[in-house]
Write a structure and sequence with these properties.
Keywords: Cell membrane, Electron transport, Heme, Iron, Membrane, Metal-binding, Repeat, Respiratory chain, Translocase, Transmembrane, Transmembrane helix, Transport. GO terms for molecular function: heme binding; iron ion binding; quinol-cytochrome-c reductase activity. It is a multi-pass membrane protein. With 266 residues, the chain is mainly α. Among the domains are: 83 residues, Cytochrome Bc1 Complex, Chain D, domain 2 (Orthogonal Bundle); 91 residues, Orthogonal Bundle (Cytochrome Bc1 Complex, Chain D, domain 2), CATH 1.10.760. Helices cover 58% and strands 2% of the residues. It contains 10 helices and 2 strands. Strands 1-2 form a two-stranded antiparallel sheet. Strand 1 and strand 2 form a beta hairpin. The longest helix is centred in the N-terminal third of the chain and has 46 residues. It is elongated, with a radius of gyration of 31 Å. It starts with a helix and ends with a helix. The model has no long low-confidence stretch (mean pLDDT 86).
Length: 266
């Protein structure tokens, strides 16, 4: 102690003390940081384990005990958490019964359980992850960006989902579902995972910004008043057909009525 006391006024004492303090802070951080990472890993492992238990009860009978697929369901290896969030979050899975297509219905799981199932399927192989809100939110988009979303929708989607996004018939008894009242997150996930007959739109084909524009276009489109008899929004051909049938039919009936009146007058 006498040795330290005699040298505390030395010019190098303060820099040395500063270095010692920095070493101590660095040491403390090194001790704490691995602990935080370990906690995160533990939490993720627990989610995967919980998801595995849910999977065994609700999904394994069709998709196999380890997601390898079976005669009644495809493999889930590599489909990613986004596919799980879409299929389970829209009630399409688990299916009530085998059919040509899984329809949208009441959701059977809580969002926490869906996240656990997604974590387990994610652990089977890499695939599209559940998106962050910034990837599908429509806030802050300009009218120009929304108009571009309309062009993209008409080019890539309207052939199946029709011009209004109200759905349409597909070959072999299948259908493209309506996009009205669909959560923006689920529209984004459908683009990235290609459920059922839908093709996959990667980020190289439709970027996140373009995906947001498409979603914003649909929101704006569905906020517009329909006005009159829309006939399901099937387009001018169907509407023109019914206008022709009703118009010509009315004229024919009128001609028959006039003829019958003339005949009676004679």
């Amino acid at each position: 102690m006498k040795f330290l006391s005699s040298r505390r006024r030395h010019p190098a004492a303060k820099p040395l003390l500063l270095l010692v303090a920095l070493f101590l802070v660095g040491g403390l951080y090194a001790v704490v940081a691995p602990s935080t990472q370990s906690s995160a890993d533990t939490g993720n492992s627990q989610m995967i384990e919980e998801g595995k238990n849910l999977y065994a009860v609700g999904c394994s009978s069709c998709h196999g005990m380890n997601g390898e697929g079976g005669t009644q369901g495809p493999s889930l290896v590599g489909v990613g958490g986004a596919a799980v969030d879409f299929q389970v979050g829209t009630g399409r899975m688990p299916m009530a019964q085998q059919g040509i297509q899984a329809p949208r219905k009441q959701v059977q799981y809580t969002q926490e359980q869906i996240d656990q199932l997604a974590a387990y399927v994610d652990s089977l192989g890499p695939g599209p992850a559940i998106p962050e809100e910034e990837q599908y939110t429509t806030e802050g988009l300009s009218e120009e960006q929304i108009a571009r979303g309309g062009e993209l929708f008409r080019t890539n989607c309207s052939a199946c989902h029709n011009f209004e996004g109200s759905g349409g018939a597909m070959p072999n008894g299948k259908e493209a579902p309506t996009l009205k009242d669909v959560d923006p997150k689920h529209i984004y996930e459908a683009m990235r995972t290609g459920p059922q007959e839908m093709p996959v739109f990667s980020k190289e084909v439709i970027s996140d910004e373009d995906a947001r524009s498409v979603i914003a276009y649909l929101e704006e489109l569905h906020q517009q008043p329909g006005g009159g008899l829309t006939l399901g929004g099937l387009g001018p051909v169907t509407e023109g057909f019914w206008a022709w049938v009703v118009g010509i039919g009315g004229l024919c009936l009128f001609a028959v009525w006039i003829t019958s009146k003339g005949a009676r007058a004679k």
